[in-house]
Automatic annotation (TrEMBL):
The keyword Transit peptide does not apply. NCBIfam families: galE. Keywords: Carbohydrate metabolism, Galactose metabolism, Isomerase, NAD. It comes from Octadecabacter arcticus 238. This is UDP-glucose 4-epimerase. Belongs to the NAD(P)-dependent epimerase/dehydratase family. The lineage of its organism: Bacteria, Pseudomonadati, Pseudomonadota, Alphaproteobacteria, Rhodobacterales.
Length: 334
């Protein structure tokens, strides 16, 4: 049974990918510094998976931590999530983002090389496409950064693309991951006021926040509000399993979008969430947010052609699973 190192595996996408990998028959070791993950996530993963969770509290910035993990485990492949991912924060702290996201990747690659481990799935983002007029976006679209966060993802991709053929690399460009695990025991759990749309709406639904500010209704879109390609986090996790299997079986690299190819506006999401939680959700039209683009949707064909990946879950599924997680409806019935 192949053993996989999941850096940042206690985080939002990492924890869902952990469950998908275990379900697919992999052995998994989580490496996380818990800077953006609750300390009880591994316990909840243990309850859901019904087996011990192997967690190493450490940091990809710490060479000794990486050496210890590779010395303690015979790792066959790595899924690398551990990075900072807040666009706004990256504008305020660019060097912090370069150090963490690029420095951390370089440390990890050096430790992998020393341990003869050369299969890696890299968590990238649609943000590498910048503000492009071509929609839906194909993978061969030019890359350009609109924030330091985006520049660290482009840099990461460029580092990985230059590794020799002895390496097999899966670069996965996420569009907008939302939703929660069907158990409602793990989900998106932002510390303070969320920047992203769905976790913000979720807090309006629970009453923690008063109303949603819709950032602009004067875009060139059907209802004037921003359109994005939302993908269920469980579909995203399944995409990582297929990417890893492809690397281990073929030794060939790939770069694919993970999205549905469908666009949903802010008002579409608001209506879907209102349906999921059974209540009207207060909102107001506010000015556009700096840096936002009108439309961002994925060409999903390459993930299907190269990995056999296809997103299955709908926007309604995403909102329902998010609502069950934030409302704790099902958490105690697992
Ligand atoms: C979605 C839509 C907003 C909040 C970001 C990062 C990207 C990736 C995913 C890491 C937009 C609107 C939002 C609100 C609103 N992260 N909105 N009111 O900006 O598409 O992508 O998260 O890889 O890098 O940029 O996601 O959820 O912030 O916004 O009207 O309170 O919702 O204008 O149209 P975004 P988002």
């Amino acid at each position: 049974m192949a053993k996989i190192l999941l850096t940042g595996g206690a985080g939002y996408i990492g924890s869902h990918t952990y469950l998908a990998l275990v379900e697919a028959g992999f052995e998994v070791v989580i490496l996380d510094n818990f800077s953006n993950a609750k300390s009880d996530v591994p316990n909840r993963l243990q309850d859901i998976a019904g087996k011990m969770v192997d967690v190493f509290q450490g940091d990809v910035l710490n060479h000794a931590d990486l050496d210890d993990v590779f010395a303690a485990h015979k790792i066959d492949g790595v899924v690398h999530f551990a990075a900072k991912k807040a666009v706004g924060e990256s504008v305020a702290k660019p060097l912090d983002y370069m150090h963490n996201n690029i420095g951390g990747l370089l440390n990890l690659l050096a430790a992998m090389d020393a341990a003869d481990v050369r299969r890696i799935v890299f968590s990238s983002s649609a943000t590498v496409y910048g503000d492009t007029i071509i929609q839906p976006i194909p993978e061969d679209n030019a890359r350009t950064y609109t924030s330091p966060y985006a520049s660290t993802k482009i840099a990461g991709e460029q580092i990985l693309e230059q590794l020799p053929d002895t390496w097999a690399v899966g670069i996965l460009r996420y569009f907008n991951p939302v939703g929660a695990h069907k158990s409602a025991m793990i989900g998106e759990d932002p510390e303070d006021i969320p920047n992203n749309l769905v976790p913000y709406i979720a807090k309006v639904a629970t009453g923690e926040l008063a109303e949603l500010s819709v950032f602009g209704d004067d875009y060139d879109t059907p209802d004037g509000t921003g359109v994005r390609d939302y993908i269920h986090v469980e579909d995203l996790a399944d995409g990582h399993v297929l990417s890893l299997k492809s690397l281990l079986e073929t030794g060939k690299s790939h770069t694919v979008n993970l999205g549905t190819g469908e666009g949903s506006s802010v008002l579409d999401v608001l209506a879907a969430y209102s349906e999921a939680c059974g209540q009207d959700l207060a909102h107001t039209i506010a000015p556009r947010r700096d840096g936002d683009v009108a439309v961002l949707t994925a060409r999903p064909e390459q993930a299907k052609a190269q990995l056999g990946f296809e997103a299955k879950r709908s926007l309604a599924d995403m909102c329902k699973s998010s609502w069950e997680w934030v409302s704790g409806q099902r958490r105690n019935t697992h």
